[in-house]
Structures are given as structure tokens and as C-alpha cells.
Design goal:
By secondary structure, the chain is α/β, with parallel strands linked by helices. The strands form 3 sheets. A 6-stranded parallel sheet has the order 1-11-8-7-5-6. The longest helix has 23 residues, at 71-93. The protein has helices spanning 2-22, 36-39, 71-93, 108-124, 139-151, 170-175, 188-195, 206-217, 237-246, 261-265, 317-320, 334-354; strands spanning 67-68, 98-104, 127-133, 157-160, 226-230, 250-254, 270-273, 291-294, 298-301, 309-312, 326-327. Helix 8 crosses helix 9. The protein is built from 12 helices and 11 strands.
Amino acid sequence: MFRGFSVALGASVRTWRGICTLGNDASCQILLSPSLVSLDMLDDWNLNADCTPRESASNYANQLSAALIDGKTIAEDIRREIANEVSRMKSAIGKVPGLAVILVGDRKDSQTYVRNKIIACEEAGFRSEVAELPESCLEDEIIRALTNFNENPDIHGVLVQLPLPERFDETKILSLVQLEKDVDGFHPSNMGKIAMRGREPLYIPCTPKGCIELLLRSGVEIKGKRAVVIGRSNIVGLPMSLLLQRYHATVTVVHAFTKNPEMIVREADIVVAAVGIPNLVHRSWLKHGAVVIDVGTFPIEDPTSEHGYRLNGDVCYEEAVTVASAITPVPGGVGPMTIAMLLLNTLDSAKRALNFR
């Protein structure tokens, strides 16, 4: 038996070392563990998701109980405070924060997001610039636009609207954003400092930062609570789980390969859903009294809507409100907070660059 095990183990070692050699990682010649990048897999939630509401909303008509976490109103309050700070800065030193956005391609949702960001900049008194590039552009053109914004002293925040067309190396392009202007908070240095106790990142990614602010302003206690983050993207899921740990929650991450996700989520005091799968989280996933933050936004065709579609979240709202103690709506929950946090990060960057207190 042991000889067979030894042969199998030897084969495994050779397999792992073959993988590691491809990654040019010298330590892998000694260890069984491969490079982390070689372990990456796409989270395909469609394999497991039942994305239709299970019961009619009328079944719950007399059970509605959840308090609404009104992200739109909270974001408006924050943006008013930001505008006051910008006015004070302009009066004192004649300067205002500047935000630049790079938009590649003609995705309707990306164009809408960028338009909303520019409108928010105008309302807050920011300077804003947009570099719009066709999907057929070269990577060098994106890098050139990035470099120009990085070197422009009147621009304090630079972001690349995601997703980029698939043929581009998103990681490489994002890494070229100057750290001091990375107001999206995606730079590895910012992400790493979120994970490490005793370290303070220059910027926290906007959506997770907004989620935490919603919890705090709604009087939700985080310390000591069990939190489950559904999804592990670099933009939301990963930094959200790290932030919740910094606030002393006990955190579990559920992803597409998690066994029995419903059972795990049902143990949570705080649930953050961030996968972009409409109605993934049903009533049966939630324990009574849970606080639910729904980050997902997914357009559903709706001829009765003004724009021909409506937005659905990851959580089946009609079901969740009957068991949750508080919940964010979609739209009007996390989305407005993301833009408010982007403005706040850009304001902080401008203050730092201009030495304004």
C-alpha cells in the first residue's frame, strides 16, 4: 500500500513541478505548491444558480419586515459634504479635484456608468476628463492616455472603466495607474494594505468602502458578527471580505465552487452578495434578522420600463424582505454609494497632492 502511495505521490510531485517550471518559480522546485496564478479558475455561477424567484411576491404581502437601507439618500448627504469641501478648497487655493476616466469600446452599461460619474463630478465642483477610445484601439493608445493623466498635475484621480474588451491585459493596464491617483483602489499596494493589520491603504476600493459606510450609518454592528461575502472578485468580493475582517467580523467567502452555499449563507448575520447573478439568493438562504447588502446589478428586459429594462440584484428582494432585518434595494442601494466613494477618494487625493487641510 505504501509503495503505491509513494508512486502516486511521486507522480503528483512531477506534475506540480512541471506546472511550476512554466511559471519560473524556483521555490516550486522544492515545494509541492504551485504558483498561485496557476490555481486561478473562472467562477461560473451559472453551473449552480437557480435565478428565478421561487414564490410570488403576493405570498409575502403581509410579511414585509426589513428596514430599507437607502443608499441614494445616504450618498446624497455625503456628496453634499464633498461639494462643501470642494468649495472651501476653491476659495482657499483656487484649485479643485480632477478626475479622469478612460473608456474603451461602446458598451452601453459602461457608457452609462461613466456618464453618471461625470455628472457627479460636475455637481460636486470637480474637474473631469474622459478619454474615449474605440474597441479597435491598440493597447499602446490606452497606455498613452493613462500616462498623460498620470503626468497631469490637475488630475488627482485616474480610473479605467471596467470591463475592458477581452483582448486587453486588464491587470497590466490597471497596474500602470499611478498609485497616488488610483482612486478606484485596485493597485496591489492598496489591496495588500487592506489585508494587513497596522497598514492603511491610500484608497479603499469604492464599492466595498460604500458598503461599510452603509452598515455604519445604518447602525449595524459589525464587530463579532458572522459575515458571508458571496463572490470573490478583485473589485468587490475580495476587498469586501478583507474590510469586514478589519472591522472584526468573522468572515466566510462563498464562491462558485463552494459546497452547500445556501447552508453557509444561512448562518450569517451580515450577507454581502456580489456576483451579478439575478435572484441568486432566495429567502431560504437567509436567517431571520440578517442584514443584506446587495451589490449585484443585472439588466432585465422590461418593455414597461422607461429604458426598456430594469435592474435586478443578486438577492430576490421580494423574498428577502420577509426575513431580513435590513436590506439595500436595487437600484438605489450600493450603486449611488460607489460613486460617492469615488468622489471622496478623489477629494482625498487632491488634498494630499495640494497639501490642503
